[in-house]
Amino acid sequence: MNEDTGLKTIGYTPFNYSADRALFRVNGGVPIQEALERASDLLHLAHRLAEDAAFEKSTDRYAWAAHFLLEMSKAVIDDVVKVITPRPAAESKKKSEAQ
Q1: What's the Cα-to-Cα distance from 22 to each of 13, 30, 47, 71, rounded to whole Å?
Q2: pTM of this structure
Q3: Which InterPro entries match (predicted)?
Q4: 47 vs 42: CA distance, rounded Å
Q5: How far apart are CA 26 and CA 29, in angstroms?
Q6: Are 62 and 47 in contact, with CB atoms under 8 Å apart?
Q7: Is residue 74 part of a domain?
Q8: Helical ranges in the chain per DSSP H
Q9: Is residue 58 part of a domain?
Q10: Backbone phi, psi, residue 15, to 5°
Q11: One digit per residue, pLDDT tens: the chain, 99 residues?
């Protein structure tokens, strides 16, 4: 998947909430291929940590690390989905009229 589509993250997706406020968000302007590659890396690390947590009974540090990695990767994927999902015709028309 080496082709550049020109599509980039939009940066609307928050994650890691504290008192109903997002502490972090996905940054806009990252090529979606790069964003998906990073999400894949995060998911791989979360998988490995969750696997370790299944065998490590004395601490939850692996589980919490996996939890936060999963939360970050989900936010990246959700942001990419917002970019590649077609918008309803009425919404697209309003946006083009505003420009």
Answers
A1: 9, 20, 24, 12
A2: 0.77
A3: DUF3077
A4: 9
A5: 10
A6: no
A7: yes
A8: 32-55, 61-84, 89-98
A9: yes
A10: -155, 165
A11: 456 789 999 999 999 998 989 999 999 999 999 999 999 999 999 999 988 888 877 767 888 899 999 999 999 999 999 999 988 876 656 666 665
